[in-house]
Amino acid sequence: MNKRFWEHKSLEQMTQEEWESLCDGCALCCLQKLEDEDSGEVYYTRLACQLLDVESGLCRNYPNRFNLVDDCVKVSIEHKQHFHWMPFTCAYRALAEGRGLQDWHPLISGDRESVHKAGISVRGRAIPHQGIPDHDWEDHIIHWVKY
Question: Mean of the pLDDT values across residues 110-123?
């Protein structure tokens, strides 16, 4: 993989390996979200997908996640118009919006733990959503992530 490939390639030009490496491992995309029907604003909750290990911040079954979770969304260039639901810190959204990667991003820092050290990830902050009725999700909206 070319060093700092994201600085001279568009998202559309990236190889699959380059695309996958953009994921910083924050797992914010694995949190349940609410969207205001009037404004379109997206709110994150601390409620985790059933496959997310809330302590490690890792998916328990990444290879089979689309088969196991009906609303698991594949982040792909074909769905770039939906990147607004991703956090402001997400590399896919940042690059699509013409911004660069943050210093804590593993591709910059060289450390997969840097996203956690920077307090960007869900590690230790999320809770499982099972057993929490949909009408109570608003009680779990978080404010530690920039949308």
Answer: 93
Question: pTM of this prediction?
Answer: 0.87
CB 101 within 8 A of CB 107: yes
Per-position DSSP letters for 2-64, written without gaps between them: -TTGGGTS-GGG--HHHHHHT--S--GGGEEEEE-TTT--EEEEEEEPTTEETTTTEETTGGG
pLDDT tens for each residue of 71-90: 887 888 888 887 888 888 99
Write out the two tokens for 64.
Answer: 């089979």
Tokens read off for 108: 């910059």
Provide the total of helices (H) and of strands (E) in the chain, helices listed first. Answer: 5, 5
For residue 67, the tally of other CB atoms under 10 A from its CB is 9
Q: Which of these, 90, 75, 95, lies nearest to 146 by C-alpha position? A: 90
